[in-house]
Amino acid sequence: xxxxxxxxxxxxxxxxxxxxxxxxxxxxxxxxxxxxxxxxxxxxxxxxxxxxxxxxxxxxxxxxxxxxxxxxxxxxxxxxxxxxxxxxxxxxxxxxxxxxxxxxxxxxxxxxxxxxxxxxxxxxxxxxxxxxxxxxxxxxxxxxxxxxxxxxxxxxxxxxxxxxxxxxxxxxxxxxxxxxxxxxxxxxxxxxxxxxxxxxxxxxxxxxxxxxxxxxxxxxxxxxxxxxxxxxxxxxxxxxxxxxxxxxxxxxxxxxxxxxxxxxxxxxxxxxxxxxxxxxxxxxxxxxxxxxxxxxxxxxxxxxxxxxxxxxxxxxxxxxxxxxxxxxxxxxxxxxxxxxxxxxxxxxxxxxxxxxxxxxxxxxxxxxxxxxxxxxxxxxxxxxxx
Length: 386
Hints:
The chain is α+β, with helices and mostly antiparallel strands. It is 54% helix and 13% strand. It folds into 2 domains: 2-136 and 255-381, no CATH class; 145-244, no CATH class. The protein is built from 12 helices and 6 strands. The chain has a 6-stranded antiparallel sheet with strand order 1-2-3-4-5-6. Helix 1 crosses helix 4 (58-83), helix 3 (47-56) runs antiparallel to helix 6 and helix 4 (58-83) packs antiparallel against helix 11. The radius of gyration is 30 Å and the shape is elongated.
């Protein structure tokens, strides 16, 4: 009988958990993907890179939502059974409430393990892959760099300014081809445009246009002011010149962040904090070590709060419809669990200050487990339902 009850409870929970997680993940991921449109609009990456990059960040969204979705799913499952009087049928049939408490706690352990797998292994790998994807992608949408009366510095070491951008309808085909852009200014700090050389240069042109394949910028009637190594400036005038943007990457991609660093590297950084090791985001200074500890606790410590909120939700099993204030219990336990999740998010930011703060962060859920569990035992002690 108990196995049938457990299967039914787990079936209800998985249904609620999957639906809530999917719905919230779609909403959050869509909003996040809209924010990533700057990769195309501002930085000139291809749409294929944009979609793949957005997809790789989905695991991060799921990781953030899983604890909250678990809370909602457990609350909804218990309320559903209570509403249909199925819990009363279970209690009157002789089922001890602690069996359900233990089963809910076991489910929370499974969700905690899932969260740990995401935070420890999958997230860093996928996020690092997304960063590498941007880093290795070439500039695709050159027109996004050529904005009217705006300085564009999406490419590191290169600043572009266009005085006027003409529309197709304003010119005949032959005239428009040359005067697509007017009063063009390009500042190159060196090693960006191969035609200029390895020293800083400034290019002025009266007008220009993009080639048909959108990879070359063709300029007319201008000059190149090139700074020589001896400090002098040489000026080269041109009637027509071509600048090739193929293979140039934007500066939107920086070095991998701490969230994108593998867990193994983080462990090595903590273990060898006083040694010089070749790991990005790992330095001997206090701030770097604090950030590493915070990230470590974020991956290993935060999932431990999931079983804690499961025990808080289990107090709903002690609620009875004939008791005063029954209608408010679901809100009380929901917001109590939600506050625990918020506190876990806040406290982890201070857990890297010292090892004492780290220990406190782990001891809070570990110490609360037996307190809540024995409180449940005491609550059900005098219910002769065993």
